[in-house]
Description:
Elements: E1 3-9, H1 13-24, E2 29-32, H2 48-54, H3 59-70, E3 74-76, E4 79-85, E5 88-93, E6 97-108, E7 112-114, E8 127-129, H4 130-140, E9 147-152, H5 157-166, E10 170-176, H6 185-189, H7 194-210, E11 213-216, E12 218-226, E13 229-237, E14 245-248, E15 251-255, E16 258-260, H8 263-267, E17 272-275, E18 280-283, E19 296-298, H9 308-327, H10 335-352, H11 358-368, E20 374-376, E21 381-382, H12 383-388, H13 397-404, H14 417-424, H15 442-447, H16 449-452, H17 457-462
Parallel strand pairs: 1-2, 1-6, 2-3, 6-19, 8-15, 9-10, 9-15, 10-11
Antiparallel strand pairs: 4-5, 5-6, 7-16, 12-13, 13-14, 17-18, 20-21
Helix pairs in contact: 1-3, 1-9, 4-5, 5-7, 9-10, 11-14
Amino acid sequence: MTTYDVAVVGGGPAGMEAALATARAGLxxxxxxxxxxLGGQYFHPRAASVRARLGEHRPEGRVxxxxxxxxxxxxxxxxxxxxxxxxxxxxxxxxxxxxxxRAERVVVATGATERSLPFPGWQHPSVVSGGFAQHLASSDGxxxxxxxxxxxxxxxxxxxxAAITRxxxxxxxxxxxxxxxxxxxxxxxSLRHPGKLVQFARELxxxxxxxxxxxxxxxxxxxxxxxxELQSVEISALDGNSSPFRVAADTLVVGxxxxxxxxxxxxxxxxxxxxxxxxxxxxDVDAYGRTSVPGWYAAxxxxxxxxxxxxxxxxxxxxxxxxxxxxxxALSAPPAAVRRARREHAFxxxxxxxxxxxxELARKLMDSAPDETQLCRCEGTTVGQVRAxxxxxxxxxxxxxxxxxxxxxxxxxxxxxxxxxALRGTTPESLASRVPLRPVPVADxxxxxxLSSGELTDTxxxx
Length: 463
């Protein structure tokens, strides 16, 4: 079995930059991604039929992917990492099945997942995430609906609404839990980032031109449906000091920002800390992405949400650290990447100050959620069942999971964790990262020669 100098997990902007730079430095590199093409969510390539009609989506992503291949990186797409032990990654793909990938150093650039907060009716097929709506509009040129409400909180809502409008849909209302649109100290500080202001204006203009209603300090409380069709969205002030009202729509897009995807890093033993603003875990890294586990690094949204430009810069910085550690030479960081990362993270911090903390927002929404609200869509567990779970301690999430099965479905709590922690009044540290990180067919485990050789025994027993 080949042992690589470097294994990079995640083929988005950060992962591709890290793989490219380490390969160009002369290291043997394997790049693993669960999608069937490199790019991640940001550089997700268009299907051939759409590309013929609309052209390439974010063509710089295709250029970067081509450079990665040309640099001699071994690319394993359609491959899922489901467990890790020291320098070994257990992966699964078609048609190779279950096998092991070994590397002296591992760079985790697995990005982020969208943060979801339940409300009555959020499981309806006409209720979709911001990421789905954005992908459909930007990559495929298709609006998710004809009359759309975009709701939630965070800077991602505006580009989602703008993309839907450009794709031909009408965003009848943009509903934001905070009050970011106005004049205040944080908005004035944004003048230091003129490029971001230009981007903001380009996204806001199509909404103003089409008559989108801007509602601040408010959240979605429920939906009214008729069979498979959405009829209207119920909205009220976050503080509950005003009467709810309804907006007619055929589609609801909801998003509350993003959560760093740290489950692989936690499984490897990397130290993570709680981000008090969002009540989410973030991996503890130095300025060059080194984690607390020797030989393990992290880059991009996995270390904090700051956008694609920051992710690419961090990929280059992590690569510099990997090359230095592998060679024993002094670290030589690319100055442009240092400046870019610093600038993008400064803007991300400013942007965060404009919006309510996701942790406090989750607590407020879950405190007022009716018992019948479905909390865990994988297992069909309701808010009332989690509230009623006699776990001995209100903060005991593990016991509540055992009693209700909330967070124990295929997504392993990646989507219901914020709501589950808000209901139990605790932090995500109490939700363990466990094997398998992603579903693995039992037939593939049984068929693997690694099982008969005994290499998989401990891992399978844990699962």
